[in-house]
Write a structure and sequence with these properties.
The structure is a single chain. By secondary structure, this protein is α/β, with parallel strands linked by helices. It contains nine helices and twelve strands. The protein has two domains: 200 residues, Aspartate Aminotransferase, domain 2; 105 residues, Aspartate Aminotransferase, domain 1, CATH 3.90.1150. A seven-stranded mixed beta sheet has the order 2-8-7-6-5-3-4, with helices on one face. Strands 9-10-12 form a three-stranded antiparallel beta sheet. It has a two-stranded parallel ribbon with strand order 1-11. α1 packs across α2, α3 runs antiparallel to α4 and α7 packs across α9. InterPro entries: PyrdxlP-dep_Trfase. This is dTDP-4-amino-4,6-dideoxygalactose transaminase.
């Protein structure tokens, strides 16, 4: 049978078990993380009189675009690598959005402000206690076709629930179909890979809708049984193993996080060359994010062109992480240099405890 191994990219249809379902705080579910943020900002305008949204200059442009019609925006300096600059001061009526980059604790303001945390990269971490509201896209860390969540660590009233939108449910159905076809393809069945990739692309386009919807039935029920804390532990363990095997990678700083492994190249050109080489080897890294040049400070734009993210979630074993590491070492090896011996394994670090 043809080797259909891959690392990265979208989840296939799986429902991992092997742990206790993770209890969540009182929350509200929506069709996507972007929809959750829209519902939250509309709620803040009504209940708190929000008039301005501060957003990090280093942030997903699609998320920013999804709310640009709701409030005036002001970008502030922020970085996923190195010491974070302090958030800007805020005035009454303003709200500050901060981000957990790759699962790191977000930078919180020292001045009184309404604070929203984007916890997409680690929804079950413990660090969100000082925020007014937290939201996350669930399908980045969980095998779900759709889903966004909002909760308030400080006990503030949540935005109202949204009715199911037929167009959104159709989009979630396309994503679920793509996930099922991908599972069959990876299992060796006669499935046209281009078909499920097309469905994933169509679903991604549908999720850009600004209509706020309820989550799909499948994702709601799957969320009840998924052991989110255990999946986080396994993701973190895989990340620690991969990072250990990349120690000393020439021209690259390796950052292990609870979301995965972040590679920081010294220049954009090696990053692009390595990315294309990984894709040829069926390893699909992500660029988080491709930022707009017209609104991004040059320093952050340069950083965005040097970063590459590697998935380490529950889909992969120790051997898979070793295979990905070997591919990276080969691609980063200077021309003419012989392949070095693999480094001795180092015990994976113990992840921070998940929120109960």
């Amino acid at each position: 049978m043809t080797d259909r191994w891959e690392c990265g990219s979208s989840f296939p249809l799986i429902l991992p078990t092997g742990g206790t379902p993770t209890p969540l705080p009182e929350h509200r579910l929506y069709g996507s993380g972007r929809q959750a943020l829209r519902a939250l900002i509309e709620h803040g305008r009504r209940e708190y009189g929000w008039t301005l949204l501060h957003v990090p200059a280093y942030y997903c442009p699609e998320v920013v675009e999804s709310v640009v019609d709701l409030l005036p925006l002001r970008r502030y300096d922020a970085t996923p690598v190195g010491p974070p600059p302090p958030p800007p001061p805020t005035r009454p009526g303003e709200v500050l959005l901060t981000v957990s980059y790759f699962g790191q604790a977000p930078t919180m303001p020292t001045t009184p402000a309404h604070v929203i945390v984007d916890a997409t990269h680690d929804p079950v971490a413990e660090w969100a206690g000082g925020a007014d509201f937290v939201f996350a896209s669930l399908r980045k860390t969980l095998p779900l076709p759709d889903g966004g969540i909002v909760w308030s660590p400080t006990g503030r009233p949540l935005p109202p629930a949204a009715p199911p939108d037929p167009e959104h449910l159709a989009t979630a159905g396309r994503a679920l179909t793509a996930m099922a076809l991908k599972s069959a393809y990876l299992a060796g069945e006669s499935v046209d890979k281009s078909r499920y990739l097309e469905l994933f692309g169509t679903a991604e386009t549908g999720l850009r809708s600004r209509t706020v919807s309820d989550i799909s039935d499948y994702s709601r029920e799957a969320l009840r049984v998924l052991p989110m804390a255990e999946l986080r532990r396994r993701r973190t363990r895989n990340g620690a193993r991969l990072a250990t095997r990349l120690v000393g990678l020439p021209g690259v700083s390796v950052h292990a996080h609870t979301f995965g492994v972040l590679l920081e190249f010294t220049r954009p050109e090696p990053r692009d060359r390595v990315r294309h080489g990984l894709i040829q080897r069926d390893i699909y890294p992500a660029m988080l994010w491709t930022l707009p040049p017209e609104t991004t400070p040059p320093r952050l734009l340069d950083l965005s062109r040097r970063l590459l993210y590697l998935h380490t979630d529950v889909r992969w074993s120790d051997e898979d992480m070793d295979r990905a590491a070997a591919a990276l070492r080969e691609l980063c090896r200077p021309p003419g240099e012989h392949a070095p011996s693999a480094p001795r394994p180092i015990a994976a670090r113990t992840p921070a405890p998940a929120r109960s």
